[in-house]
Amino acid sequence: MTAASPDESPRIRVLVADDQALVRRGMTLMLAVEPDIEVVGQACDGAEAVEMAQQLLPDVVLMDLHMPRMGGVAATRAITLSLPRTHVLVLTTLDAEETVFEAIRAGAHAYLLKDATEEELLETVRAVHRGESRLTPQIARKVMDQFRRLAPLPEGPPGDAALSPAVTPQPVQAAAQTKAQSVMTEPLTDKEEKILQCITEGKSNRQIANAVFLAEGTVKNYVSRIMEKLHANTRTELAVMSVRQRRGD
Question: How far is the C-alpha of 161 from the C-alpha of 208, rounded, in Å?
Fold first, then answer.
């Protein structure tokens, strides 16, 4: 493949992982015609996706979730842990709430359903490469529903030692609570607090830059620092943790 000229930005290197050959080929053909995107490989299952990602070092991995040998969630976790510069974009037919949050906890930067338009997919690939997080409207509603369920429960009578079974936190909630309660190595600065609020509101780096009067690259550095302080793997996880902390959970 032709290398980018000195005047051009490097193309976004994409690895497509899906167990259906027709889907892989279709995605590859669609992405390959974009001048700023290069498909560097195709994987037919999660295990191969991990192996190819470690060999090819792609910028973005398009990851199906339901695959043989190793599922997409496990592959996402393995890739994000070993390759912090590689971002995973989940592209699947699965929209069950448990699956969504498993993928997010595994480190996925975006979650799209396969009925997304070509324009949505291309824009999401570019956004993920910029370090942004994206969710389809259906998935975003599930995240918001989860926020609502994470609201503090009314306190019971004094002396109650345990919650009733009906209100015992579910695994997703318990994991989020544990993460949110982890101790920061350093407190957030006022500027970082403002940027975190913008992230919680779903703003992109460009929108945050306009809101706080900083360069977009500077905002990206701030976001990375905030994620480091809060021990978050993705902006979506950062938003969940922020909401929990503000509610005092």
Answer: 44
Taking alpha carbons only, the member of 226, 216, 230, 217 closest to residue 195 is 226
Alpha-carbon span 121 to 108, nearest angstrom: 15
Order of all β-strands in the sheet with 134-135? 37-43, 12-17, 60-63, 87-92, 110-113, 134-135
How does pLDDT run across 2-27, given as a tens digit for each residue?
A: 445 445 678 999 999 999 999 999 99
Give the Å distances, CA to CA, from 85 to 26, 58, 79, 110, 141.
26, 8, 10, 15, 28
Q: Contact, 87 vs 60, CB < 8 A?
A: yes
Dihedral sign from CA coordinates of 33, 28, 89, 227: negative
Tokens of 13: 């290197």
